[in-house]
Amino acid sequence: MRSEACARPLTGSWSHGRGRRYAYYHCPGRACGTSTTKNALEGDFLALLDRLRPRPEYLRLFKAVVLDTWKAKRQESAGLEADPRRRAEAIRHRKERLLEAFVYRGAINQATYQAQLDKLDADLTPVEMERHDAELEGLDVEGLLSYAEHVMLNAGALWRDAEHEHRIRLQAFFFPAGLTRADGAFGTVTSGSLFNHLVPVEETKSGVATQSTLGWNQILSFIQQLGANCGKIAGVCGVRA
To answer: For the whole model, what pTM was predicted?
Structure first.
């Protein structure tokens, strides 16, 4: 949580009054003035989660679109030859031989070495991307989506009932870039938020979800974020990732 005015993280502290102690969050910057009680901040956060919570029927459509697109992409790539891992290893081996020729045998000069190294690096980049995509294909996408559905539909209750450490994990899961606070309210939720991946999908008269507004890059980004973060909150949410 940061101040929207100066981008500094808010700090927790205690205030005394009428024989009681009150928990506060405030910005350490003197010129900022951002301050709120712990109860107000937590209440507003729960309200934010409730406001962002998608409708169950919408998540059902979103899940159908993602799974359909994922399966179609896997079928497209099924016929591609050559294991990207094997090709990447071959390029790395050529780099080792190039280094040996330059450093140990002196068979080539600096300019030739650098030109060949740049070419091998350029060849390696797309192969590494293919290797990464191949690793993604091994993910249990349907399981990840079911896990995310459970967490997003019960976000407020899960966060409210969690211990402090688990709350921090859930906050990072929902809002990887964090949140800002100004004038007693949260700032605009950034594009890095898990909720912002849920772009509109449509349902035809036959009940089939369409993907007219849901691109492959958006789907891939969403799945990558789930794959990277679900393990971090495993056990926090009452289900296993």
So the answer is: 0.63
